[in-house]
Every structure is written in C-alpha cells, then in structure tokens.
C-alpha cells in the first residue's frame, strides 16, 4: 500500500476557502475533490480539472494562490504532493499523465471573486440551462450582483450592428466561463507583473511590514523570470518523458 507523505499545512490566507460556484463534471469532479483538499493544505486553491484522451489520458489541473499567482515552483510543489495522493485514492481507472498549470491570462472564471476581478473585461460564458433562448454568451462583464440563486454576472452583449443588450447570468447556472484574450486584458496582466516586480525589489523589512496588511504576494528571493510567470499566471514547464507524473496501474 502506498502512503501519501506528510504535508506541511499552511495557515489559510484570505480567500483560500472561497467555494467554486462552477464545478467540473463527471470524472473531473472526482479528481477535483482530492486535488482541492491537497492544494488547500499547501496554500493553493483549485481552479479547474480537465481530463483529455490526448496521448493516452491526461489529467490537467489548474490551481492558484488566493492572490491569483502561480509560479513554476508552485506547480512543481503541487505536483509532488498530488501524485502520491492520487496513487492512494486512485480516482482514475486507467493510466494517465498529470499536468499542473496556472489559470493563465485568459483564465476560467469559477468563483465570485474571479468575476469581480474580471469586471470591465470580455468573457465567454456557456450556460447549463437556456436563458433568453440561448446558452452561449460573449460580452463585457459590467458588474456582479446578488440574485435569487446566488451571485449573478451582468454582461453587455454587442451585436453585429453595434447595438448593446444587457443580460444577467446566474453564476451557479453556468457550465463554463472564461476571459477572452484582448489587448485590454494583456495590458492589465502587464500592470500586475510590473507591480509584482516592483514589490520584489523593495527592501525585505518593508515588504514584511506590507505583507502583514495585505494578501500574500510573491516570495522574496524569487528569480525574475518566475516573478513574471507568477504575475502573468504562466503554465508550468512541460515534463520530459522520464520525469515523474506518469501514472500507470
């Protein structure tokens, strides 16, 4: 019997326990229950699980820190903790390859705070139920407001004739939502990157004082390219064929 190694459990950061309002379906949900628990113990939160049949079977897990960052080292750390946990609980019935990544710039939106941060940006939404005769929407998120079935995203849809329509979509009724990669979104990501780099260059004692007042940011001593990855939400480096994350039975 394989036993999962002991993990150092971190103190929960603000936002760490915020629930996902959009869950993964089927086998992804089973994998996600295990991944979410392991990730939380390390100070990360699960964003999405996607299982594909490419190159056999691939389990892709997106995760992040509560502040939205996820460095390459974070991805590697989470992968090392998830592999033995999956070996013990066996959520997959076939051999698979495990991939850990950050959500990226055009990220999935799964929590209320994701939609709040996305206000002003364009998103694609697919509903699990029909609303106004359709399931798919694309438009600018203008607000997040309370609704009868929980928080709802208000969106402005722009037609081909440039006319605008306002809709309100319950987040819990969404099957999938993600940001659209636009110039405005890229500029916003670059501003976050610049802020992260500026914070990393501040004297350690000043950073420590600021960290007591704000959410955890990028750790001091991180290499500049990893700071950029954390600010952008870049994916982890692909593993080679001889590097461990391939699981067989």
Tag the structure with descriptive keywords.
249 residues, alpha+beta, 4-stranded mixed sheet, 6 helices, 28% strand, disordered N terminus
Mean pLDDT reading: 82
With helices defined by DSSP (H or I, 4 residues minimum), what is the helix count?
Answer: 6
What is the element string, with H for helices and E for strands?
A: HEEHEHEEEEEHHHE
Low-confidence stretches: 1-5, 211-244
Largest beta-sheet details: 5 strands, antiparallel
The largest sheet has its strands arranged as: 7-6-5-4-8
- Beginning-to-end CA distance, first to last residue: 13 Å
> Approximately what portion of the residues adopt beta-strand conformation?
25-35%
Rg, rounded, reads 19 Å
* Percent range of helical residues: 25-40%
Question: Layout of helices and strands, plus pairs?
Answer:
Layout: H1 26-41, E1 45-52, E2 58-64, H2 72-89, E3 96-101, H3 112-117, E4 122-131, E5 134-147, E6 150-158, E7 164-170, E8 174-179, H4 183-201, H5 204-211, H6 224-232, E9 246-247
Parallel strand pairs: 2-3
Antiparallel strand pairs: 1-2, 3-9, 4-5, 4-8, 5-6, 6-7
